[in-house]
Amino acid sequence: MSYRVLLISPGGRCPAAVTELFRDCDVDTVEARSSRDAMSSCAYDIVLVNAHAFADAERTALDAAKSSAAVLMLVPESDYASARDKMTKFGVFVLPKPTTQATMSVAVDFLKTACERFRAEARRAGIVEEKIADMKLLNRAKWMLIDNLQMTEAEAHRYIERQAMDRCEPKRAVAESIINTYKTI
Questions:
Q1: What's the pLDDT at 24?
Q2: What is the CATH number of the domain that holds 38?
Q3: Do 65 and 152 reside in the same domain of the chain?
Q4: Distances in Å between the alpha carbon of 51 and those of 59, 60, 70, 136?
Q5: CB count, 10 Å around CB of 106?
Q6: N or C: which end of the chain has fewer CB within 10 A?
Q7: pLDDT at residue number 48
Q8: Rounded distance, CA 77 to CA 139, Å?
Q9: Which domain holds residue 75?
Q10: What pLDDT does residue 67 have?
């Protein structure tokens, strides 16, 4: 899997150590920006917020956490305990600075794992939404059969199922056909 990474840091600089860290991690893009408005321009998989001398860092990290991105906030060691307590309940990973390359590497692995969970949830949500749309379509077709052919709901349901089996088509296609037939009447 490839990942799009956004680093939000004062001055919009991307430290060479961060770029190097992501070089071997199947990262598609590493972008550095200076403000949280950068998140609205593109969908990112991983957002790193460098909180050093960045007054808006907490709000920026919380905004990023509302998206489907895995978020890591790097805070000065003196602020680590309070930031960790506040941010973890919102799903934001927090690391104290300075940190080692090994610790950052482990953190990146955690972020990638979180990204994969988010992607799996998005796929499941898409499947559920598709099933709901199919159910709405089938119900609309059933009601058209009930209104136009005076069928009961059970008869309309059986009719759609039978047509789908006879035509070797999904019920959705049969429902669309019924809707197209009766919407002009």
A1: 62
A2: 3.40.50.2300
A3: no
A4: 11, 9, 16, 47
A5: 13
A6: C
A7: 85
A8: 58
A9: 3-99
A10: 82
Q: Would you state the structure tokens that stand for residue 19, as one six-digit string?
A: 């770029």
Q: What is the CATH number of the domain that holds 143?
A: 1.10.10.10
Q: Give the per-residue pLDDT at 41.
A: 57
Q: Report residue 92 as tokens.
A: 């934001």
Query: How far, CA to CA in Å, does 142 sit from each of 9, 87, 130, 161, 169?
Result: 56, 49, 18, 11, 17
Taking only the tens place, the pLDDT of each residue in 103-141 is: 887 888 888 888 888 889 989 999 999 999 999 999 999
Measured at the alpha carbon of residue 103, what is the angle toward residues 12 and 69, in degrees to the nearest 5? 50
Q: What is the pLDDT of residue 35?
A: 62
30's enclosing H/E stretch is: strand 27-33
Render pLDDT for 143-175 as a digit per residue (tens, 0 to 9).
Answer: 999 999 999 999 999 999 999 999 999 999 999
Q: Do 78 and 50 contact (CB within 8 A), yes or no?
A: no
Which pair of structure tokens corresponds to residue 65? Answer: 């956490």
Of 52, 6, 9, 47, nearest in space to 29 by CA: 6
Residue whose tokens read 């998005």: 122
